[in-house]
Amino acid sequence: MHNEIDLDKIDINLESPTEEPFRQYYFMARCREWVREFERKNGRRPTAFTQTFGCQMNAKDSEKLQGILERIGFVEADDEKADFVLYNTCTVRENANQRVYGRLGFLNTLKRKNPNMLIALCGCMMQEPDVVDKIKKSYGFVDIIFGTHNIFKLAELLFGRLEKKKMVVDIWKDTRQIVEELPAERKFSFKSGVNIMFGCDNFCSYCIVPYVRGRERSRKPEDIIAEVEKLAADGVTEVMLLGQNVNSYGKNLETPITFARLLRQVEEVEGIERIRFMTSHPKDLSQELIQVMGESKKICRHLHLGGMHIHIQVLRLYGQVEKHKGVFMLHHKGPVSFLNGLCHQIASDIAAIDVIVLKIPVAPGNYRFAREPCDPQDLTLIFHRQQVGGDLSPEHGVDNVL
Length: 402
Prior knowledge:
By secondary structure, the chain is an alpha/beta fold. 32% of the residues lie in helices and 13% in strands. It has helices spanning 22-42, 56-72, 94-113, 129-138, 154-164, 209-213, 221-233, 259-267, 287-295, 312-317, 351-359, and strands at 47-52, 75-76, 84-89, 118-123, 144-146, 168-170, 191-195, 197-198, 217-218, 238-242, 274-278, 303-306, 336-339. The strands form 4 sheets. Strands 2-1-3-4-5-6 form a 6-stranded parallel β-sheet, sandwiched between helices. α1 crosses α2 and α8 packs parallel to α9. The two termini are 42 Å apart.
């Protein structure tokens, strides 16, 4: 692993490398020179605060961001009264954006008291052009803006801000590049997330993921297994395999591999006792995966599955008419968390999801992810959390379920 690269042995007088991750270690070394100068002037090392908004993949990204900052020489701070503040943002819901704007107003107050304070924004919210334009226009005190595809470039972007002394904006629309071999600061000693793929190709009507995380790209299985083995050697006993759609893992690799086969390989890693994964898309749910889950002694009996319940005519309105019969195979295999909801649904459309919830054991932590009904006559959707099992079949009405 490259985590053991000695920054002191990097010649910062040479041109920056072009190959990753060595390029980023070079800029870590350059930034560390700034940290040392800061320490000489202030009698202390600079502090850094990272706040994560959003999902498990954002949390995993923040571990990498924090690891890079600590490798440079920053000391972790407990709140925003720090020399460097980084927000890793989410844009799944409108109020997530509003929370960030509210926090930026608070940071502006802090920066007026400490003009040398540095502020960086990254993550899904920054992939929206309107958001970036608004920040540049109304929040000009922000120093660095970058998105989801170039999280690994934090050191390089920070160095650019220190050199140019003006706002740095670096947003990639998409990428096929994957750079994972960088420092990371884990939040827990016994468990860790492991990125196995990025992006999604499904473009569901209710989901912004393909637009902010890009198209699907998978890591090589040997790189994933090497990371899991390293984590196990470091005392980790539980891993969560992360991706926007883990069920479609491996389809775009030079040598394709199914997610079920990857799970079998992870299960063979000595020291790993529990395996989790999220998120899954129903259309890519395979009989092979269900079988692996049923046979495994390490895979936790939980499946995070997105679904819509709606009348077939409304599905056609949204261009979503494919029926995902993979869901029929789930009976008696374990609890399922469902995400549900779309606009234009009426009271009669809730029948199908009632059938699913009644026929599959539903995890206690399931939740509703829905836009408000567009018709005032529409009913608020409520989950029935009965813990019962049974078969699902077309005659139960699931043909109206996506």
